[in-house]
Each structure stands twice: as structure tokens, then as C-alpha cells.
Structure to design on (75 residues):
């Protein structure tokens, strides 16, 4: 899957990963994919709820060495 933009939100606490994600997703086209890297443990529930409520699609989620990686397709 082609990722259009990668957002490094590591070290940021809630609500900053969501704030940064909103800004980053506004910079890509509908249908493109944003990848978000964060260390905020609450990001899984926060980003899932945010994607669902804003019409975006959470495509993938994984954790690697304490970093949570999300792929979100802009709706």
C-alpha cells in the first residue's frame, strides 16, 4: 500500500496526536493514506474513534518496539 505522508507524533501526549493527525490528513487528497507513528498508549482508541467519526478509514494498526503505527485512508 502506498503511503502518501508519514506523521511522526512520537513523544506527544493526548490530545496532540489527534491534533497533528487532523492537520496532516488535511494536507493529502481523498483516498490517499496517512501513516501515523505515536507512543501515546491511548492513541488506539482515540484514532479509531476519530477516524470513524470523521469518515476516514483505519486500514491498519500495529505496534513495533513501543511505537504504535496507524494507516488511515482519507475519506
Amino acid at each position: 500500500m502506498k503511503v502518501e505522508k508519514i506523521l511522526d507524533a512520537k513523544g506527544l501526549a493526548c490530545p496532540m496526536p489527534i491534533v497533528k493527525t487532523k492537520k496532516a490528513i488535511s494536507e493529502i487528497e481523498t483516498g490517499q493514506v496517512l501513516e501515523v507513528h505515536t507512543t501515546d498508549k491511548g492513541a488506539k482508541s482515540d484514532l479509531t474513534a476519530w477516524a470513524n467519526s470523521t469518515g476516514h478509514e483505519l486500514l491498519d494498526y500495529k505496534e513495533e518496539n513501543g511505537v504504535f503505527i496507524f494507516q488511515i485512508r482519507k475519506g
Q: What stands out?
A: The helical segments are 16-26, 43-54. The mean pLDDT is 96.
